[in-house]
Design a protein that fits this description.
Length: 286
């Protein structure tokens, strides 16, 4: 779009829906081809467009005029920011951070009520190694969540399925370079802004209203650091099933972070310009 007007944000603040009554797309370009190129960009250097690309990617088989407009909105944003990507500035410490967020039922009254996606929540997460973005994702959750707490908790559970293997790879990489297993520490922190989800992750306060979460998303509890007193529990030291000392397994810390410092916000929803640029600065450095 050589002569297009540049745009300051990659998408509208209103979620992009199915638009069943909308006009069919009538453009000369290939919607799937353009979305494929944008997907490549979003998964390599441009996490600021991950949410927008995830939205338009839902409609590659039956794009409407509104979906084509959303693609062009994103291209106009890239037109303005084509010289940027992600600024790599290592923090100097060997740390892994996970920022995770969700938007509960964000397609409610956007997609038709009878559509299965109308009740879905969106999740997004960002994993950083030494403050460098390493892996990020924006996606609709496959299962319908019954509350904001469940949506946040399921998002965290999904993100931890990526975080824990990454942490193992980092540990193994440094051990292969001669670092002692007894002295190597990789501080790993999960940043969560939802109070109820934070409480479930750290205190395991399951009630009759939340116990249904236990069977599907609570699997990661054995990796969460709880109290220093656990260090004196000999059984706790040796209860690992994969040969890894339990103290080493349970070394992921969960902290409560203010919403305005939650770096995964712009992976779950369209934001106004000021808020979007603030979050982009936190994650991408510009």
């Amino acid at each position: 779009m050589t002569d297009c007007n540049p745009n300051s944000t990659p998408c509208s603040t209103t979620p992009l829906g199915i638009d069943p009554e909308g006009e069919p797309m009538n453009e000369s370009w290939s919607y799937p081809s353009v979305v494929g190129s944008l997907l490549y960009l979003a998964t390599n250097t441009r996490l600021d467009i991950a949410f927008a690309v995830s939205q338009i990617g839902r409609f590659v088989h039956h794009p409407k005029k509104s979906h084509a407009t959303a693609v062009k909105t994103l291209l106009r944003y890239l037109k303005k920011t084509k010289e940027f990507g992600t600024i790599i500035k290592p923090g100097g410490l060997l740390i892994i951070d996970l920022w995770v967020d969700s938007d509960f039922a964000n397609l409610f009254k956007i997609d038709p009520d009878q559509s299965p996606t109308a009740s879905k929540s969106r999740a997004g997460f960002l994993i950083c190694l030494s403050d460098i973005p390493l892996l990020w994702k924006s996606f609709l959750m496959p299962r319908t969540c019954l509350s904001t707490t469940e949506a946040e908790y399921q998002a965290a559970s999904t993100a931890l399925r990526f975080l824990i293997p990454i942490r193992r790879v980092v540990l193994e990489m440094f051990r292969r370079h001669g670092y002692s297993k007894n002295h190597l520490r990789v501080n790993t922190t999960v940043h969560e802004d939802n109070a109820a989800c934070y409480q479930l992750m750290t205190e395991q306060r399951l009630t009759n209203r939340t116990r249904y979460i236990l069977t599907s998303t609570h699997w990661f509890w054995e990796y969460i650091h709880r109290h220093a007193d656990d260090d004196d529990d000999e059984q706790y030291r040796n209860d690992a099933t994969d040969g890894t000392p339990a103290l080493e397994r349970r070394s992921i810390r969960v902290v409560k972070v203010p919403t305005d410092l939650q770096r995964a916000n712009y992976l779950t929803k369209g934001l106004a310009r000021v808020q979007f640029e603030r979050e982009r600065k936190l994650s991408q450095g510009w």
